[in-house]
Structures are given as structure tokens and as C-alpha cells.
Amino acid sequence: MKQKIRMMPFYRFMRAVVTPFVRLLCPTKVIGRENIPMEGSVIVCANHTSFSDVFLLATIFPRQIYFMAKEDLYRHKIVGWFISKMGAFAVRRTKGDTTAIKTGQDVVRRGDVMGIFPEGTRNFEGPPIRAKAGVALIASTTGAPVLPVSIYRPGRFRFFKKTTLRFGTLIPAEQLQIDQSDYRHELRRVSDTIMGQITKMWEMGY
After folding, report:
1. Measured between alpha carbons, how far is 43 from 119 in angstroms, rounded to an integer?
2. Are strands 146-152 and 163-167 parallel, antiparallel or unpaired?
3. Cβ–Cβ < 8 Å for 108, 37
4. What is the pTM for the complete model shown?
5. Sign of the C-alpha dihedral computed for residues 75, 80, 84 and 86 taken in this order
6. 151-170 residue pLDDT tens
């Protein structure tokens, strides 16, 4: 018997409602589905091109993704309520947010999928930019593998504009461990390793 994918009821419902509209409004070529782990903890890392990225990943990825979302979104009561019901959690981008890091660690340690845009902001045009250190910290402290994802769409997002979504091969936990004797340098190395894989796929274009 096929195992049922675990999802929060609201997430499952909204995913079913939104998926047809996402497929219509944002035609997407998906490459590398075979690289998606169907069980166990994993950190999904993608470059961030527009507001549509969350919807693309949530409707294409077969498991629930618990996204790290910028704190500003929670200032809007309806938006904040909605994304909280979808399992997202807030992060302050202007300073080290230990609460967000701990929440991300908890998501991963219980065997779920955490989603993060490691650039820390949307990059509307051009190649992905350098990653923040948060993803390296969560990966190194939880022992979870990272699934790099590239979202390719040259220029700004428009409805009906073609997008290519690439799932790369898992980056194993062994490559993400940090040598405590050179902590800051190691955080940067791990962050660059993850973002480097995303950038390589992005450069493949369509």
C-alpha cells in the first residue's frame, strides 16, 4: 500500500485549491524529481526570484515544506494568519535570529522538510547572490542533507512566463559539517557550497 504523505490539513487543502491556478499561470518545466527524498528530514534551499517561488515549491514538492518567512509578512494580520496556518515560521533578516534557527532545527529534527531561501531576499534578475549563514548553521547542527533547487526565469516574474525548476542531487550531511576551530570561515564555506550548487543549476537556463 502506498504510504500517505503527512501534511497539515490546511496545507493539503490549500495545495489542492492552488495547484491548478499555479499550473495555468506559471507554466513550469520540472527537472530532477527523482532527487526528491520521500521520507526523512531534509532542508530545501532555493534561489528567490519572486513571490511565486513559495507557490511553485509548495505545489510541486510532494511533501509539506515548512518555510522560513520574513518577519515583515506577519505584520499583515491576514497574511500572517495564512502563512502560519501553512506551517511557516518567522525570521528577522536584519540580525541573527536564534528563535528562527531553533524552530528550523526542530522542524528538521522531527523528520520534516524545512524550506529556506538562503539569499535572504528576492533577487529579481541575474544569477543567485551569496547565501546568508542561517542555512549552514541549521544544516550543520541537525545533520540533515540539503536539497538544492534552482528557479530559472530570466527577468521579472510575469504570469504565463516560462519557468524551469531544477532539483539537484542531495548534498550529504558529511559535506555540511563545520570545523569548530574555524567557525566563521566554516559557516561561509558551507553556505557557499550550497549556493554554488544552486548557481550551477541556474546557469543551465531552460
Report:
1. 14
2. antiparallel
3. no
4. 0.93
5. negative
6. 999 888 999 999 999 999 99
